[in-house]
Design brief:
3-stranded mixed beta sheet, 3 strands, elongated, 55% helix
Length: 110
């Protein structure tokens, strides 16, 4: 299989009901697209599962296809994020860097 699987088991039954009625929760769309982008897959099966519902309503499946618009954003933003993360890690590895300067660097970027 050349696809991914994302399973959510929400504690709040409303989340599961909304997934059944409205589809994948908006808060999970970017997560699914990032998983597709980072693994270079085209399809992801998103499952919402809740044992608190009758058997026929416990599991709901959506198929998610890779979205090129989302992936263009990742192509742009992820390398910049990694570059910044590498810079901060290098600062942490610098034995001569006083912690006060590191804190100033981090707070000035906020």
């Amino acid at each position: 299989w050349d696809r991914l699987l994302e399973i959510k088991c929400p504690v709040d039954p409303t989340v599961h009901i909304n997934a059944i009625l409205d589809g994948i929760p908006k808060k999970n769309i970017a997560q699914c697209q990032f998983a597709l982008w980072s693994t270079k897959r085209e399809t992801l099966d998103f499952v919402s599962y809740s044992p608190y519902f009758p058997p026929k309503s416990q599991l709901h499946l959506y198929q998610v296809e890779a979205n090129p618009e989302h992936h263009e954003v990742f192509d742009e933003k992820v390398p910049a994020f990694i570059e910044e993360l590498d810079r901060l890690v290098a600062m942490l590895d610098d034995d001569d860097l006083p912690i006060e300067r590191l804190n100033e660097e981090l707070s000035s970027e906020s």
